């Protein structure tokens, strides 16, 4: 066995576990693949821990046949529980946590770690849990598929592992193997809920996990420690960077603790915004590494230090704070001192009502075996809540959930209620979901005595905690756990812990950098642009310094740049045009934007101005805006004397503002303080800032865009008032390597393209081939072949240079790789502002967006090309598609030039016909005697007429391309259009009119760009 192969990796891992308390099966002998169980450990566990119950079913005095029948009854009953829906109390996790009845016996299949050591029986039972690692498990009931490793607890499968050594394979190979070769349908070990709880891919460098195998939709999450506060894993001397996984996570007691005290299901009800139908989703919550680390560190620290200390947990957005808080609350409620007494008399969680009544409550209820442990105080007025709170505290409820508004009353009760004297509490504050603005903030300030200034617009959990510290509430008896992504300076000062250099730092960190690099949030600074910068670049672009084809006048500035903003009305024009040109078509047309204003009065005026602009430009049927602010605004200039959120949003129709904005009616949300923090709407792609921001407010506000959703790659921020250096400084506080993409010279695109061409790695023929295959979706294999050719050139030169120790060539290839990525980033940024007027640049942008994936350094497998995750989401690139860039008759291999792809002012362009369109035309007129030339002329004439039809334009604006093609309106309107365009094309028209079915003609017109051209025509009419 070669030491660099996967077998050696597998052997080393298993031998380590065998030496540290695990049972070890070198093969799958004894594994029952039909049931998905290891019988010997199940029966052995029951014999060791519950012999009296076992004897009721497997009678010691009975014959072997009778005993075998008894064992079968137990196994069949376990399988029945495993196969029951998780929402109905079944599945693997329920089988482990809940006793199972078999006839007149009741069995527990697992013993969680006991909260105290006072009960010797449960302590011994915990020690007797059987953990087993099994190699090369032939798991499938359909074929001979094997898994590298399976992990069992008392015979119940809890995990599977695919190992890949980076010396021969890579992480992507393991992820792909699970997604494509490990289909869960009908497989007991792999089925969600029924089989193993978690599935890992482990390489020497990284660990990834998923709790649900779902074919191509399988989502793996990193389970890495981090490296330099970013993604990946730091080196471990003498072993692989992932050795922590088997040395630390799979340490016997740690693994049992994860199974027993971390895992729970999340059941969420979702309502379709269009048809109102309700569905339920279920997911199994398995901690990511940083979540496990934070909770276990907190438990150890509190055990060592006792009550009365402070802990600052700085976990970025995207870290899963709600789960982390639920685990921490449960752990603190269970925590006991060595003498068996409880560490805390209660746990108070400060969050918003939605979280308290929803995810948090359900998570705690699943983690706890006893009901009624969690009591949220979220209903009724202040007086009612105060009474409920006092009653809950006096009754000794283990976990009490309160909103920020109610929390100060909890402090007063703890301070003044004689019945609570001497009691100790853990207070857990969720900064992300606990802030108040407007009247609520003013009311809260009256309760506080310190920690906020009169100028503050908002009051959040950190302000309340600071006030409490100033008043010395609960000194020595209350422990505070502050979970925040962006701690304020005063929070770090009060709750931070000094490091060796005497600097106060957080207790645990999961950085914004790591969250971005691991793909849990987006980098909102990537396409951040100030209006001054845009105007500056546009001004440079308008001169002779920019390398363009002036004979075709292709250096057209985007319309939104030319609208110089001097007042709200003009800013609104800029906002709407930028949104239409850059944001609107992201996420399949569902992308949304937020306008951040400086005051409630400005928010009202923005709403009035946007509504007017949309109406004046006939866009009010396509775009809709909502405004969010608290209280009442008096502004005679805006019409009515008094404005409220309800009066200014008549389209709410009884819905909450969040629910209405989540649907398809409204695309723009105007805010004044409200919704700048704690608002999670993943469809937000654009932001327009007309408010001075700095420090934490800047980070929290701009971070509204960072939420991830499939297909979301870009975000866009247009800032009218802030200094980009100040924004960068704000982000650097929370993200070590924050970098504002700010290419000030638009010619950088030409410079980088020249550098890439000079390397002679990418062939123009391959660029054309990829663009043709991508935009016209002709063939995946065609796309593959052209990417492969240029990829092979790169890796051949790379491997030759490495083998020859040619450092100069390696350096040039490294620079080439960096330039590819820089080009894509710079193009995304600059193409918002100007049209380079060069189809070649557009083609290279498409090619490089795909190509960059196959020359990546760390996990690049030079034998595999995978374009599944490549999504071209930039509007200009989609508009290039819409312009039918492709091969034209008589000019094989050439692409027709586009002058204004993606602009808000599309001009008439000559469209080239692709060969597949010509083939459709020939099929359409087959057997009619109409020549190819006449057929093309006929369909081009009809196309010119049909795009002017207002009903068809309306269909194009209201539908996706797929829905548009199947719309009955097109076919019903075509007959009139054909008559109108009959002159000069009698033969062709006659043939069309004699056809019984005009469906094929619809397909021809759609292939010629009917959808896109109709939308362009509608936009041209609206802006004229």
Instruction: Count the E strands.
Output: 34
The fraction of residues assigned to DSSP E strands is 5-15%
- Quaternary structure of the protein: single chain
Question: Roughly what is the average pLDDT, rounded to an integer?
Answer: 79
Class by alpha and beta content = alpha/beta
- Tally of helical runs: 40
Kindly report the spatial arrangement of strands forming the biggest sheet. Answer: 1-6-7-8-9-10-11
Largest sheet: 7 strands, mixed
Helical fraction? 40-55%
Shape: globular
Rg of Cα set: 32 Å
* Alpha-carbon distance between the two ends: 75 Å
- Low-confidence blocks of residues: 432-455, 541-560, 737-744, 858-914
Features:
44% helix, 34 strands, alpha/beta, seven-stranded mixed sheet, seven-stranded parallel sheet, globular, 1024 residues, single chain
Q: Could you explain how this protein is built, in words?
A:
The model is unreliable at 432-455, 541-560, 737-744 and 858-914 (pLDDT under 50). With 1024 residues, the chain is of the alpha/beta class.
What topology emerges from the helices and strands here?
Elements: H1 6-18, E1 23-25, E2 31-32, E3 37-38, H2 39-49, H3 51-57, H4 64-83, H5 92-97, E4 100-102, E5 105-107, H6 120-128, E6 131-138, E7 146-153, E8 156-164, H7 171-181, E9 198-203, E10 207-210, E11 221-222, H8 243-249, H9 252-261, E12 264-271, E13 278-285, H10 289-305, E14 310-315, H11 321-334, E15 346-350, H12 353-367, E16 374-377, H13 382-395, E17 399-402, H14 407-416, E18 425-430, E19 435-437, H15 438-447, E20 458-460, H16 461-470, E21 478-484, H17 489-495, E22 497-498, E23 504-505, E24 508-510, H18 512-517, E25 528-530, H19 531-542, H20 559-562, H21 568-583, E26 592-597, H22 600-616, E27 625-628, E28 632-634, E29 642-644, H23 645-648, H24 657-662, E30 668-671, E31 684-690, H25 695-702, E32 716-719, H26 724-732, H27 748-758, H28 764-776, H29 780-803, H30 807-830, H31 839-851, H32 875-882, E33 887-888, E34 891-895, H33 915-924, H34 932-946, H35 950-958, H36 961-965, H37 968-980, H38 986-993, H39 999-1007, H40 1010-1023
Parallel strand pairs: 1-6, 8-9, 14-21, 14-24, 15-17, 15-18, 16-17, 18-21, 25-32, 26-30, 26-31, 27-30, 31-32
Antiparallel strand pairs: 2-3, 4-5, 6-7, 7-8, 9-10, 10-11, 12-13, 19-20, 22-23, 28-29, 33-34
């Amino acid at each position: 066995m070669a030491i660099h192969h996967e077998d050696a990796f597998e052997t080393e891992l298993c031998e380590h576990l065998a030496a540290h308390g695990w049972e070890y099966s070198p093969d799958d002998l004894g594994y029952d693949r039909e049931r998905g169980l290891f019988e010997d450990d199940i029966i052995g566990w029951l014999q060791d821990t519950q012999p009296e119950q076992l004897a009721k079913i497997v009678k010691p005095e009975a014959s072997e046949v009778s005993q075998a029948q008894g064992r079968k009854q137990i196994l069949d009953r376990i399988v029945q529980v495993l196969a029951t829906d998780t929402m109905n109390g079944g599945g693997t996790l329920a089988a482990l946590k809940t006793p199972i009845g078999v006839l007149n016996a009741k069995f527990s299949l697992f013993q969680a770690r006991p909260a105290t050591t006072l009960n010797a029986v449960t302590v011994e039972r915990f020690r007797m849990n059987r953990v087993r690692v099994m190699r090369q498990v032939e798991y499938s009931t359909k074929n001979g598929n094997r898994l590298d490793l399976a992990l069992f607890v008392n015979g119940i499968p809890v995990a599977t592992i695919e190992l890949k050594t980076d010396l021969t394979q890579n992480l992507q190979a393991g992820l792909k193997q699970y997604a494509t070769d490990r289909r869960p349908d009908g497989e007991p070990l792999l089925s969600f809920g029924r089989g193993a709880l978690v599935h890992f891919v482990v390489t020497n460098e990284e660990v990834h996990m998923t709790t649900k195998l779902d074919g191509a939709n399988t989502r793996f999450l990193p389970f890495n420690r981090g490296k330099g506060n970013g993604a990946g894993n730091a080196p471990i001397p003498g072993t692989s960077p992932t050795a922590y996984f088997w040395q630390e996570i799979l340490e016997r007691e740690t693994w049992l603790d994860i199974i027993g005290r971390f895992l729970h299901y999340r059941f969420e009800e979702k309502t379709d915004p269009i048809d109102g139908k309700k569905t339920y989703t279920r997911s199994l919550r398995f901690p990511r590494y940083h979540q496990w680390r934070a909770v276990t560190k907190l438990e150890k620290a509190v055990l060592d230090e006792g009550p009365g200390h402070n802990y600052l947990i700085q976990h970025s957005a995207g870290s899963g704070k709600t789960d982390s808080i639920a685990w921490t609350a449960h752990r603190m409620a269970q925590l006991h001192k060595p003498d068996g007494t409880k560490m805390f008399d209660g746990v108070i969680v400060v969050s918003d009502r939605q979280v308290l009544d929803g995810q948090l409550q359900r998570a705690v209820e699943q983690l706890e075996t006893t009901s009624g442990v969690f009591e949220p105080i979220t209903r009724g007025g202040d007086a009612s809540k105060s009474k409920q709170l006092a009653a809950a505290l006096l009754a000794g409820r283990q976990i009490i959930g309160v909103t920020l508004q109610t929390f100060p009353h909890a402090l007063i009760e703890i301070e003044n209620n004689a019945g609570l004297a001497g009691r100790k509490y853990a207070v857990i504050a969720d900064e992300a979901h606990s802030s108040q603005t407007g009247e609520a903030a003013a009311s809260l300030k009256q309760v506080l005595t310190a920690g906020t200034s009169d100028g503050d617009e908002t009051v959040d959990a950190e302000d309340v905690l600071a006030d409490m510290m100033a008043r010395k509430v609960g000194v020595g008896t209350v422990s505070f756990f502050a979970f925040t992504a962006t701690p304020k300076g005063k929070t770090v000062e009060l709750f931070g812990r000094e490091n060796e250099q005497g600097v106060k730092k957080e207790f645990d960190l999961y950085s914004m950098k790591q969250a971005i690099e691991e793909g849990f949030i987006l980098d909102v600074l990537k396409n951040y642009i100030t209006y001054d910068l845009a105007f500056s670049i546009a001004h440079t672009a308008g001169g002779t310094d920019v390398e363009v084809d002036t004979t075709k006048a292709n250096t057209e500035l985007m319309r939104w740049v030319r609208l110089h903003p001097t007042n709200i009305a003009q800013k609104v024009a800029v906002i709407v045009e930028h949104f239409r040109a850059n944001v609107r078509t992201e996420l399949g047309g569902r992308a949304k934007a937020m306008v951040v204003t400086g005051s409630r009065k400005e928010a009202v005026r923005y709403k009035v101005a946007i509504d007017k602009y949309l109406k004046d430009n006939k866009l009010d049927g396509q775009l809709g805006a909502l405004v969010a602010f608290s209280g009442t605004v008096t502004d005679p200039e805006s019409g009515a004397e008094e404005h409220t959120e309800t009066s200014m949003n008549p389209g709410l129709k009884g819905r909450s503002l969040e629910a209405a904005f989540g649907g398809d009616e409204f695309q723009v949300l105007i805010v004044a303080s409200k919704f700048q923090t704690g608002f999670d709407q993943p469809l937000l792609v654009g932001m327009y800032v007309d408010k001075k921001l700095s420090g934490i407010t800047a980070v929290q506000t701009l971070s509204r865009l960072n939420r991830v959703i499939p297909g979301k790659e870009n975000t866009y921020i247009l800032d009218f008032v802030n200094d980009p250096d100040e924004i960068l400084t704000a982000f650097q506080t929370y993200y070590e390597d924050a970098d504002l993409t700010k290419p000030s010279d638009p010619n950088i695109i030409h410079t980088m393209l020249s550098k890439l061409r000079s390397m002679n790695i990418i062939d123009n023929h391959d660029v054309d081939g990829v663009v043709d295959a991508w935009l016209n979706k002709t063939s995946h294999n065609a796309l593959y072949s052209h990417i492969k050719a240029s990829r092979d050139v790169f890796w051949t030169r790379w491997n030759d240079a490495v083998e020859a120790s040619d450092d100069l060539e390696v350096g040039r290839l490294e620079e080439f790789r960096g330039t590819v990525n820089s080009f894509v980033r710079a193009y995304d940024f600059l193409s918002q502002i100007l049209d380079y007027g060069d189809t070649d640049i557009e083609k290279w942008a498409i090619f490089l967006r795909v190509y960059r994936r196959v020359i990546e350094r760390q996990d690049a497998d030079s034998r595999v090309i995978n374009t599944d995750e490549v999504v071209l989401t930039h509007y200009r690139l989609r508009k290039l598609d819409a312009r039918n860039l492709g091969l034209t008759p008589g000019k094989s291999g050439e692409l027709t030039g586009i002058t204004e792809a993606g602009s808000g002012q599309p001009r008439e362009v000559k469209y080239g016909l692709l060969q597949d369109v010509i083939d459709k035309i020939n099929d359409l007129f087959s057997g009619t005697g109409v020549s190819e030339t006449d057929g093309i002329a006929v369909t081009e004439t009809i196309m010119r007429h049909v795009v002017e039809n207002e009903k068809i334009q309306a269909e194009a604006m209201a539908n996706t391309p797929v829905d548009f093609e199947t719309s009955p309106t097109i076919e019903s309107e075509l007959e009139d259009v054909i008559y109108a365009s009959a002159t000069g094309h009698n033969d062709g028209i006659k043939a069309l009119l004699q056809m019984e079915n005009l469906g094929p003609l619809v397909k021809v017109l759609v292939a010629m760009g009917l959808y896109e051209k109709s939308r362009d025509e509608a936009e041209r009419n609206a802006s004229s």
